[in-house]
């Protein structure tokens, strides 16, 4: 399965958490999924609520499965909520269509996975995700 | 598992029910969850409808898993319904995002569980929950 | 819905827990369901594992839904495991077919609910359940 | 929420993976759950199959929810397969009852979470888990 190496996934997670601390965000949780939507790495900061894994994964999972960033999914949900609800039906309810879900692309532009961040506002979550992705030398689409 | 003792949970349940009787509310149901969202104590008053366990738990479960009170969840649902729908998807449909779901915090402010009350209006449910929590000497966030 | 009063349900729960303490069993969890299989009261002792609500309910739920005690369900599972697996399919996987699930009957012999106890061996769980039921002046079928 | 700190969780994950490399095991995946069964940290080595997150979590989840190590769960499944099947029903099919699921206990003996390792034989998975737990200065029950 295409994906980033565990080494790069670690860098993404650590640097996203570091960005959250630098910006004094609430405790964050960060997941990296491979190109099949399967979990590769995850960390939840001390003080984050227990349900954060599911939310982080939901943001990244929708990105991979639909090939759409969290922002693009949110735009669609704003215009056509019943469509995103129905999409969630076929994906077992596992999709959270808001910013903080960021597509990972390789140099050719192919999707190689996604990052999901949750804990602060959706926009701040996306900023932290992008910081992690850049630190790993990858391209993100938020 | 962080949580209140069974002794304190009993006090919460009994005093919340007593508050409902004092205010002549409809028959109430009261649940106490631990910091992982797992049931510790529950009682349903005579005359309450049979589905009240699931509703009480749903109010408290969302509070624990998201670290947000029922009021805060309702505000988010009012602003962004598709987001709370999606959140509920990742939690198996188990979240009821309205008042009556009250976070329990310890003296440091850490979440140690939640109380869920249902049976009357959501606002009256929250009043009963807070009465139980105060009687147990704990801090609630409704 | 037929069922015991909350008052009697409380007695069952308390006396079952007291029996467990008297016999020095592991921490117990006790649920009382009404004649429709819906939760009326539950308590989990300090030190019990977090999943005990689901197990206690599963023991009592099978008893109500099938009109069979936990012992009778276990006998059937021992003889015909695939049948009890299939039964669980139609009940959403919610049935735990072992002792500790005890039918509650009124004086005419009609089922008015069930009690589920978990935490120690299945046989000890059933002993604690029967002690609670007898203390409430009801008839149990373990 | 009772649990280990993220710092300790990282140590567990890294040292369990290092043990696997030292013993030349197949690529491992390691999860740390808190005392409520919620994910705190996870890493999957390069070359592991994509479903490893669910298996690692399943091993650790059963340990937390039942308060039983993977070895104890396997012994029960060997003796009474229909019981462990039924238990899995009430936990949404999320339990993998084999070694590699290791309970984490604090100094008083209270369960504070669990570690799940998968990728090699169940017994080797448990060895790697214990190496991580010891490196973090915690007590494990495999």
Question: If you had to describe this structure to a student in words, what would you say it looks like?
Answer:
- By secondary structure, the first copy, chain A, is α+β, with helices and mostly antiparallel strands.
- Chain A has a single domain (6-141), classed as Haem-degrading domain (Beta-Lactamase, 2-Layer Sandwich).
- Helices cover 46% and strands 20% of the residues of chain A.
- The first copy, chain A, has helices at residues 6-22, 52-66, 70-79, 81-90, 122-135; strands at residues 29-34, 39-44, 101-105, 111-118, 139-141.
- In chain A, strands 2-1-4-3-5 form a 5-stranded antiparallel β-sheet, with helices on both faces.
- Chain A is globular, with a radius of gyration of 14 Å.
- Chains in contact: A-B, A-D, B-C, B-D, C-D.
- At the A-B interface, α2 and α4 of A face α2 and α4 of B.
Task: Please describe the structure with a list of short key phrases separated by commas or semicolons.
homotetramer, 142 residues, alpha+beta, 5-stranded antiparallel β-sheet, 5 helices, globular, GlcG_carb_metab_protein (chains A, B, C, D)
């Amino acid at each position: 399965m295409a994906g980033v190496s565990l080494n790069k996934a670690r860098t993404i997670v650590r640097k996203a958490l570091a960005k959250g601390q630098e910006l004094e965000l609430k405790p964050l949780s960060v997941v990296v999924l491979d190109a099949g939507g399967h979990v590769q790495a995850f960390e939840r900061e001390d003080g984050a609520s227990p349900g954060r894994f599911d939310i982080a994964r939901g943001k990244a999972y929708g990105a991979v499965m639909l090939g759409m960033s969290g922002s693009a999914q949110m735009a669609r949900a704003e215009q056509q909520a019943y469509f995103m609800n129905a999409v969630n039906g076929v994906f077992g309810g596992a999709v959270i269509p808001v910013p903080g879900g960021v597509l990972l692309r390789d140099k050719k532009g192919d999707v190689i996975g996604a990052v999901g961040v949750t804990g602060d506002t959706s926009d701040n979550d996306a900023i932290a995700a992008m910081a992690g992705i850049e630190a790993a030398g990858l391209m993100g689409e938020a």
